[in-house]
């Protein structure tokens, strides 16, 4: 094993499969509703990332239907992790957040939750609320969307926050040491070169981060990036180049960091480019990354022999 996989971490800790349940709790985002910006991130069509995005199902219905589905699909499930995925899942008054989180945490089969959010949407009272759940269910993660460590790129993709907000959020979160932090990163963003991407890895390595999600840039329909792509303003990544970038990126991170994701996909109905970011090519991408690790291991052993 060349990196610590999230599924393996959960299996070791809980003695079997822990299944994530993606939940859309009906939240929005500050760069969609006009409070920070409008239009959302240029890469974002949330429907392409979450099967429940924009759903009209209640949180309760989503959880119960998903648990029933996965219990029928897998015989060895030991529990579930509630994943608040769609949009910004701390962007609401504390009492509203408490109501939503309480619904998920009320199920004994759910061992914790993972909350996807932005680093500029975690005031102290929200972090205190999230930390309170770790008393009974210690598997509590906050997933911060960083995407890149470069302000110019963040501005270009309409993130409407900076790197300083990210660093501040991480340091304030880690004052509640019971909360684990996962960081989302996109490799291949417009106008970023190799050194830019590795600088993002170095920033993550310098902070108290527990996990990372690495995604290749993929263009999906109904986004600002789709228009940029068709105008020739965005170049798509090659699969083998991405494999090398991902391995290089991980080489800068601490060995104990947990990799929640090392590639990303969109459904074929939503995907514009590159072709290999559809679910049917996922195993090929993972194989390319594995082969890149193996190649480097062989070269390292060979260099040791020569010495």
Outline the structure in words.
The chain has 307 residues and is α/β, with parallel strands linked by helices. It has one domain (4-306): Alpha-Beta Barrel (TIM Barrel). It has ten helices and ten strands. The protein has helices at residues 6-14, 59-73, 94-105, 124-132, 151-156, 163-173, 194-205, 224-230, 239-251, 282-306; strands spanning 4-5, 17-23, 77-84, 110-117, 139-147, 180-187, 211-216, 219-220, 258-261, 271-273. The strands form two sheets. The chain has an eight-stranded parallel beta sheet, sandwiched between helices. A two-stranded antiparallel sheet has the order 8-10. α7 (194-205) packs parallel to α9.
Spatial separation of the terminal alpha carbons: 26 Å
Percent helix range: 25-40%
Return Rg in Å: 19 Å
The CATH topology name reads TIM Barrel
Provide the succession of SSEs. EHEHEHEHEHHEHEEHHEEH
User: Could you give me the name of the CATH homologous superfamily?
Assistant: Aldolase class I
Residues in β-strands, percent: 15-25%
Look at the helices and sheets and give the structural class: alpha/beta
């Amino acid at each position: 094993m060349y990196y610590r996989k999230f599924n393996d971490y959960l299996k070791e800790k809980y003695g079997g499969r822990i299944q994530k349940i993606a939940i859309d709790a009906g939240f929005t985002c500050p760069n969609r509703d006009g409070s920070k910006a409008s239009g959302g991130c240029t890469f974002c069509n949330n429907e392409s990332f979450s099967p429940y995005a924009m759903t009209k199902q209640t949180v309760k219905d989503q959880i119960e239907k998903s648990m029933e589905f996965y219990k029928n699909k897998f015989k060895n499930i030991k529990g579930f992790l509630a994943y608040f995925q769609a949009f910004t899942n701390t962007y609401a008054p504390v009492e509203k957040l408490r109501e939503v989180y309480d619904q998920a945490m009320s199920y004994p089969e759910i061992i914790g939750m993972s909350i996807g959010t932005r680093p500029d949407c975690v005031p102290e009272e929200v972090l205190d609320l999230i930390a309170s759940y770790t008393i009974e269910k210690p598997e509590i993660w906050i997933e911060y969307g960083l995407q890149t460590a470069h302000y110019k790129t963040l501005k270009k993709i309409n993130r409407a926050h900076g790197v300083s907000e990210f660093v501040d959020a991480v340091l304030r979160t880690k004052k509640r040491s019971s909360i684990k932090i996962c960081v989302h990163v996109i490799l291949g963003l417009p106008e970023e070169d190799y050194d830019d991407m590795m600088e993002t890895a170095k920033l993550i390595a310098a902070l108290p981060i527990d996990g990372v999600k690495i995604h290749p840039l993929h263009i999906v329909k109904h986004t600002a990036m789709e228009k940029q792509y068709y105008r020739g303003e965005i170049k798509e990544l090659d699969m083998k180049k991405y494999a090398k970038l991902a391995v290089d990126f991980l080489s800068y991170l601490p060995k104990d960091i947990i990799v929640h994701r090392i590639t990303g996909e969109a459904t074929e109905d939503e995907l514009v480019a590159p072709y290999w970011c559809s679910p049917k090519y996922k195993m090929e991408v993972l194989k390319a990354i594995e082969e890149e690790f193996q190649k480097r291991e062989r070269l390292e052993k060979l260099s040791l022999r020569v010495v």
